[in-house]
């Protein structure tokens, strides 16, 4: 529609949200769909967090908050960064936003000029590329393969850098691949980045706690990277608080100040009740949510076992988050039940129509050979979904 801006016309609709909408639509028609498309824990919010939100309402929290978030929430975030990551921040380095998605959008808006290049080790989270484009940046994918566990190598990183490179954005644990970068692997990337001091690193650590290796490491923990790394985190995944919309950053003061300015013109401060509840969520030790991590670990085992029985699926062992990202390219060029499968999108659509299982095409994550399945679903749903997929593939 040319009445709309070029900006929005050139933007992709979020593939994960589009699949979720399609799933809802089919469910509303009475069709029994199993949704493995959304990255959303199926747990309810821990009781002590809910209580603190109720208390905040009773305590009459209702006003606009400071644009960058409540001071005592900043303190709780500072304590969390110290406790979990051994990172030291001042309040002026912390900005609280309406979800990590807004934290990321702020960053691209304040850092990118037209034509600035953004390195995205692929597969990457669905919104990075479009957020960059809206801000005038040019996403540059760095492809990886299942053989390197979908992790970018130092050589590939260095090769992708040009004089126009402004940012690198990645998540660890990674959505969609579940890969976790170790300290050693990050150091190798840091050794390349030290040679290019103008590149800023955006480290998306929203899956920090959903890590089955038990070892989370942040690029910002390297002394020579601290001043140029922005850590993005939030409460959506670890605390099952997706709808409460709280995310935050810790980073260089000059960047935080700019995010504050941007947010002040776009949304103002994040929801006041959710900010109060986030204080409680972060003040409690991660051991309180370990039961969710344990459950995800068990479901990962189940889904990997079941997927290994499907011929044509090639899957690595994800070490974190709650996704598997099988390579399904073995099906490309085939005709199943009269339907031609040439791309991951065709395959994902086929599974929706023939298996009644919602997945997301890897094309949305910059990897055209794979599809993403979320195992943030009940064991019963996972078992039924994989059974249906197998049947739909006539296996
Ligand atoms: N970053 C990654 C890697 C994600 O998977 C998500 C959510 O799916 C987000 C950021 C956004 O999270 P939030 O709910 O805090 O906006």
TrEMBL record:
Query: EC number(s) for this protein?
Result: 2.6.1.-
The residues covered by the Aminotransferase class I/classII large domain are: 32-389
A single GO molecular-function term is: transaminase activity
**Keyword line:** Aminotransferase, Pyridoxal phosphate, Transferase
Cofactor(s), names only, from the UniProt record: pyridoxal 5'-phosphate
Among InterPro entries, the record links this protein to: Aminotransferase_I/II_large (IPR004839), AspAT/PAT-like (IPR050596), NHTrfase_class1_PyrdxlP-BS (IPR004838), PyrdxlP-dep_Trfase (IPR015424), PyrdxlP-dep_Trfase_major (IPR015421), PyrdxlP-dep_Trfase_small (IPR015422)
Gene3D superfamilies given in the database record: Aspartate Aminotransferase, domain 1, Type I PLP-dependent aspartate aminotransferase-like (Major domain)
tRNA processing is among the record's keywords: no
A Pfam family it matches: Aminotran_1_2
One Gene Ontology BP term is:
amino acid metabolic process
User: Which PANTHER family does the record match to this protein?
Assistant: ASPARTATE AMINOTRANSFERASE
Family recorded in the similarity comment: Belongs to the class-I pyridoxal-phosphate-dependent aminotransferase family.
Identification of the protein by name: Aminotransferase
Instruction: Please name the source species.
Output: Aequorivita ciconiae
């Amino acid at each position: 529609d040319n009445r709309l801006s070029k900006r929005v016309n050139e933007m992709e609709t979020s593939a994960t949200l589009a699949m979720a909408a399609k799933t809802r639509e089919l469910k509303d028609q009475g069709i029994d769909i199993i949704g493995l498309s959304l990255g959303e824990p199926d747990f309810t919010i821990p009781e002590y967090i809910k209580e603190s939100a109720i208390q905040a309402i009773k305590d009459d929290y209702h006003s606009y908050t400071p644009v960058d978030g409540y001071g005592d929430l900043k303190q709780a975030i500072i304590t969390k960064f110290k406790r979990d990551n051994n990172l030291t921040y001042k309040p002026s380095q912390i900005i609280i936003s309406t979800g990590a998605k807004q934290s990321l959008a702020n960053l691209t808006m304040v850092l990118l000029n037209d034509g600035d290049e953004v390195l995205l080790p692929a597969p990457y989270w669905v919104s990075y590329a479009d957020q960059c484009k809206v801000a005038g940046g040019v996403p540059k994918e760095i492809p990886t393969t299942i053989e390197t566990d979908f992790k970018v190598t130092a050589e590939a990183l260095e090769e992708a850098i040009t004089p126009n490179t402004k940012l690198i954005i990645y998540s660890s644990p990674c959505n969609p691949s579940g890969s976790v970068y170790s300290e050693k692997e990050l150091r190798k990337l840091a050794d390349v980045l030290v040679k290019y001091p103008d590149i800023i690193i955006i480290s998306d650590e929203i899956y920090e706690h959903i890590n089955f290796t038990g070892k989370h490491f942040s690029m910002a923990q390297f002394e020579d990277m601290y001043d140029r790394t922005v850590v993005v985190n939030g409460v959506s995944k670890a605390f099952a608080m997706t709808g409460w919309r709280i995310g935050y950053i810790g980073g260089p003061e000059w960047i935080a100040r700019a995010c504050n300015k941007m947010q002040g013109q776009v949304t103002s401060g994040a929801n006041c009740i959710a900010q109060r509840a986030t204080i409680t969520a972060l003040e409690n030790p991660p051991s309180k949510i370990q039961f969710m991590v344990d459950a995800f670990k068990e479901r990962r085992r189940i889904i990997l076992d079941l997927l290994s029985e499907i011929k044509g699926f090639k899957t690595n062992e994800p070490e974190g988050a709650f996704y598997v990202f099988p390579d399904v390219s073995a099906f490309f060029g085939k005709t199943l039940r009269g339907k031609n499968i040439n791309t991951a999108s065709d395959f994902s659509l086929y599974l929706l129509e023939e298996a009644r299982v919602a997945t997301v095409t890897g094309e949305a994550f910059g990897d055209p050979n794979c599809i993403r399945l979320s195992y943030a679903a009940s064991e019963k749903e996972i078992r039924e979904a994989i059974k249906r997929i197998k049947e739909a593939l006539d296996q």
